[in-house]
Design a protein that fits this description.
25% helix, eight-stranded mixed sheet, 539 residues, seven-stranded parallel sheet, 15 helices, 19% strand, binds zinc ion, alpha/beta
Length: 539
């Protein structure tokens, strides 16, 4: 009998949406497929004001079962000499001498966040757009120590004897960039501006050069595995699926994907190319297995236009700023209704970074339908990157007073967390709040939704597409549906992907209902295997 040589171990993304961390081992070679932030488990213990202690390094995430106990995998500066004594008895403990890299599917934190903990010499393989988004998100946001994907600030111990006695220096601005191997763009094709952005870019004067450890991008062909990277359509640009050639055959990892966005063609191409490899195994997401149909991005445009067309007050559009498709949808609606789309500086920063790679993404300077809303407090004490954005696009800046005086000229891209700007804007009664995002998934989000409804009531705004609580569940009224397109394929589309790629083995991940595939593919030739957390599969 031939011994199976390829092993898959699932450290996250099992019976949950997100937190994917899948270890693939083939003889000496080892790869992780994503290394995501485990939102579901994190929320069991933590909230905004109760977080893992950054000063305790790896201790808190290991002790709370957020991070697998794999000695040798994580950053030295987060360990203490005694740290592993507590975890060597754990059933999933292992010493990992080497890792060839992480294959990152896209820049959503439930797939990328915990890369923050990995040793800095472990390469991260990704598309160029994904790499740039991880950097733009960090440059323009406040990343907690457990979400620093593109670069991190190493902690410095004053006393190295143990975590209880360690004191970490505060105000450390040193930044170490991770090694990214780019899978879809030749490095020589990148523009000097793109390379400049990667090497700290738009705000490089902000820190002393000695504090910045820059790492030029390399190529995914440096990896010891033969890899294929397939672009797919998802609610963030740069998403991909991966193919890994192993001694058992090709293993395909879908990441997150759909057919109903603006890049649906890339998902179709992925299926054809993956099927042609006659794969041994397909690791497939199943977020929306129970949904029968999808709302397409095109319908969001049509429904959004209909909702906004006759409105003569202010429009606030609430959607994820990293969902470029949605931003372009609302930009088109703004143009078609004679308004301007006002984005926040962090959205402008992200757009500028993506434009460096994809010229078809709007250039803020040239795009007449776009302006940048500089928030009231930031305009008094802006951080350096905001100052840079606001200087570069000076003619595009609008302030609260501009919006207040001409409310029918704007669609403001705000989320719930930007509503504290409203006292400066004073929206006219009857102005519209267009909700174009998903329904609440947990109690904390439900509390935020109640607050959101209070804000709308207070300012006499009319909500559209907004989930409403009824008999303990939150639903968008039927007449207001179709203002949000999910990032994930529905059940029939996922079954089509499975059948057309037709692997020997299908392994569902990123799903609360993995048994769906067992039920629906019973009569097919495909062998469905349901993994367990920390469990090992041999293929
Ligand atoms: Zn995603």
């Amino acid at each position: 009998m031939v011994e199976p040589m390829v092993q898959l171990t699932f450290y996250g993304g099992i019976n949950e949406i997100g937190g994917n961390k899948i270890l693939l081992e083939d003889n000496e070679g080892k790869l992780f497929l994503d290394f995501g932030f485990p939102y579901k488990r994190h929320k069991l213990f933590y909230e905004e004001y109760l977080k893992p202690r950054s000063g305790a390094g790896l201790l808190d995430p290991l002790a709370m079962g957020l991070l697998p106990p794999l000695e040798g995998l994580y950053r030295d500066d987060l360990e203490t000499p005694v740290l592993w004594q507590d975890f060597r008895h754990a059933s999933t403990y292992r010493k990992l001498e080497r890792l060839d890299g992480v294959l990152l599917s896209h820049a959503h934190l439930d797939h990328s966040g915990y890369i923050a903990f990995l040793r800095e010499d472990i390469p991260v393989y990704a598309t160029a757009v994904t790499a740039f988004i991880t950097k733009a998100m960090q440059d323009s946001g406040k990343s907690d120590f457990d979400q620093q994907v593109c670069y991190f600030s190493p902690t410095t111990r004053e006393c190295p004897t143990g975590w209880k006695q360690t004191a970490y220096l505060t105000g450390n601005i040193a930044k170490h960039q991770r090694q990214f191997g780019i899978a879809d763009v030749k490095l020589e094709d990148l523009s000097p501006e793109a390379i400049q952005f990667w090497n700290w870019g738009f705000w490089e004067k902000a820190a002393k050069q000695k504090d910045l450890v820059s790492r030029p991008m390399t190529s995914h062909s440096d990896c010891s595995f033969n890899l294929r990277c397939f672009h797919v359509d998802h609610s963030i640009p740069g998403a991909c699926a991966w193919g890994i050639e192993t001694s058992s055959g090709w293993v395909i990892y879908s990441g997150d994907l759909r057919f109903h966005g603006k890049r649906a063609e890339s998902t179709r191409r992925f299926i054809d190319e993956a099927a042609a490899l006659r794969p041994k195994a397909l690791i497939l997401e199943g977020t929306n297995v129970l949904r029968e149909t999808n709302v397409a991005e095109r319908e969001v445009y049509e429904n959004g236009l209909k909702a906004i067309y006759d409105s003569n007050g202010l429009i606030i559009a609430d959607f994820s700023p990293r969902d470029l498709d949605r931003l372009l949808t609302f930009l088109q609606i703004a143009k078609d209704t004679g308004r301007k789309l006002a984005i926040l500086p962090k959205d402008a920063y992200l757009l500028k970074a993506m434009h460096l790679l994809e010229p078809e993404i709007p250039d803020i300077t040239q795009e007449t339908g776009l302006v940048i809303y500089q928030d009231t407090i930031a305009s008094r004490y802006p951080s350096l990157w905001v100052r840079h954005i606001c200087q570069e696009y000076e003619s595009k800046i609008v302030l609260a007073d501009d919006v207040r005086s001409t409310q029918d000229q704007f669609i403001l891209c705000f989320s719930f967390f930007d509503l504290n700007e409203l006292p400066s804007i004073c929206p006219k009664p009857g102005s519209l709040y267009v909700y174009s995002s998903s329904e609440p998934h947990d109690e904390e989000q439900e509390i935020d939704f109640r607050r959101l409804h209070n804000w709308l009531k207070h300012f006499e705004l009319k909500g559209v597409g907004l989930p409403i609580e009824s008999n303990g569940s939150w639903r968008v009224p039927d007449s207001e549906k179709g203002l949000h397109a999910s990032g994930h394929a529905c059940g029939p589309d996922l079954l089509r992907i499975a059948r057309e790629i037709n692997p020997e083995v299908l392994i569902p991940v990123h799903s609360e209902y993995p048994g769906f595939y067992v039920d629906q593919l019973r009569s097919s030739q495909i062998n469905i295997i349901l993994p367990t957390v920390g469990g090992k599969l041999e293929i």
